[in-house]
Amino acid sequence: MRVVSARQPEAIADVLAAIRTATQRGAPAMLITLASHIAKRGAPWPRRVVFPKGDVLKAWGMPDRRLPLSADAIGTIVSAVRSELIARAEARRHYARAVIDRGLADLLVPIGERSASKAKIAWPRGSEIEIPAGATLRLFLHWEEPLNTRVDLDLSIALYDANWRHVGTCDFTHLRFGEHAAVHSGDLTSAPPPLGSSEFVDLDLAALTKLRARHAVIVVFSFNSISFDRLTYGFAGIMVAPQGDQPFDPRSVAQRFDLSGKSTITVPVTVDLERRRMRWLDVHLTGEGFHHQVGGYRAALAHLGKDFADFTETGARPTLWDVAAIHAAARGNVVYVRERDDEITMYKRRDSETGHARLVRILARDHDGAISVIPAADAPTWFATLRDDLAIPTGSSGFVLDARTTGGEGLTRLAAADLIAELAPKR
Predict the structure, then answer these.
(1) Closest Cα to residue 238, out of 146, 350, 119?
(2) What is the CA radius of gyration of the chain?
(3) N or C: which end of the chain has fewer CB within 10 A?
């Protein structure tokens, strides 16, 4: 569309017709990604971020020099894709009601082989997550080395101001930043089984604010260049720092992210200290030499963190909210949306309303009324929620991000990838 608009505008209608035809055969992940991408192509983005294929995930940022698409072209393509996905969802089982959380908009759709964490909660890569409430946060690393192989991992924290200028580092060479703003636990050089080893950095958010620190980038280095895929296990995470005699058990923390891949330097997480939000990146850097320290990567880490932030803010990547809204609009007789402010909005099936029109209403919050509590029901429900905090009748089906509370007896539990797979065309 970009090329034909500039070079052969008389062919625009033919190209749009071909796109509408092609959507009928498109894979669901491709269509979902296409709709989100095209919807944001009305103006150049602050930065483009691309992920070349390979065993090790790397990210490349570049200026966006692409010409914008016209509003008509954007509307036609996005409408065609959404209508096709709605039609596919309508061909599946229908439910008396659907319940979805608008907070799913913080979770990106997993579209690659390594796009979801294998830890307790499967966060898709690029997702933004609210960090735990507390004055002092603990960023931690925990790993166990295989038998007869010493693995020396190092946890490092690079700190940047609001403009991504470096303000400080906390690692095994600088155990403190400020008096107590960031405090490193100390260097461990092996992690023998069965207990493994842990390193951590405690962050005093108030003290960091006084020192102009806005962003924290977590970096894990393999000091003796043993790749992460050789570990028995390894993960990094975030939690509220234990107080007093409270135990520190990193294996019990839900907000953690696995270390994997044939690399020796990884950036698992960035944290916006002011907004109290963290983003799972799981991006790997190319190392030079045998020993690694964060000092040699300060500029690269700043570019990486800023590029991801700019890219995410474009809204050009599909989220689990986008997918859940398609299913709910097509398959639920009544749709309840749990909003971020705890309000519950209701979307009834209006007379002669198409599934696509209902989807547009849900995305725009054009609801049929707000309620404080979802009414109890015995009929099966389709659901997509963040937590296991909803009474769901037997025979229901859906997705829960953090499904650790209940066993889900009588329910069909779906993974994020299942929500996408269910939008495949019937053959």
Answers:
(1) 119
(2) 23
(3) C
Cα–Cα distance between 94 and 327 in angstroms, integer? 9
- Tokens encoding 194: 């069965």
The one-digit pLDDT tens for each residue of the chain (427 residues) are 999 999 999 999 999 999 999 999 999 999 999 999 999 999 999 888 877 666 555 667 788 999 999 999 999 999 999 999 999 999 999 999 999 999 999 888 875 544 445 555 666 667 888 887 888 999 999 999 999 999 999 999 999 999 999 999 999 999 999 989 999 999 999 999 999 999 999 999 999 999 999 999 999 999 999 999 999 999 999 999 988 888 888 888 878 888 888 889 999 889 999 999 998 888 887 755 434 556 568 888 888 888 888 888 888 989 999 999 999 999 999 999 999 988 999 999 999 999 999 999 999 999 999 999 999 888 999 999 998 888 889 999 999 987 765 455 688 989 888 999 999 987 6
Closest CA to 395 of 3, 96, 92: 96
Sign of CA dihedral 246, 251, 255, 258: positive
- Residue 226 φ/ψ, nearest 5 degrees: -90, 125
3-state secondary structure the chain: CHHHHHHCHHHHHHHHHHHHHHHCCCCHHHHHHHHHHHHCCCCCCCCEEECCCCCCCCCEEECCCCCCCCHHHHHHHHHHHHHHHHHHHHCCCCEEEEEEEHHHHHCECCCCCCCECCCCCCCECCCEEECCCCCEEEEEEEEECCCCCCCCEEEEEEEECCCCCEEEEEECCECEECCCCEEECCCCCCCCCCCCEEEEEEEEHHHHHHCCCCEEEEEEEECCCCCHHHCCEEEEEEEECCCCCCCCCHHHCCCEEECCCCCCEEEEEEEECCCCEEEEEEEECCCCCCCCCHHHHHHHHHHHHHHHHHHHHCCCCCEHHHHHHHHHHHHEEEEEEECCCCCEEEEECCCCCCHHHHHHHHHHCCCCCEECCCCCCCCCEEEEEEECCCCCCCCCEEEEEECCCCCCCCCEECCHHHHHHCCCCCC
Q: How far is CA 146 from CA 7, 132, 224, 231, 261, in A?
A: 59, 32, 14, 6, 16
Question: Cβ distance 219 to 267 under 8 Å?
Answer: yes
**Tokens 């799913």, located at residue:** 104
Q: Residue type at 87?
A: A
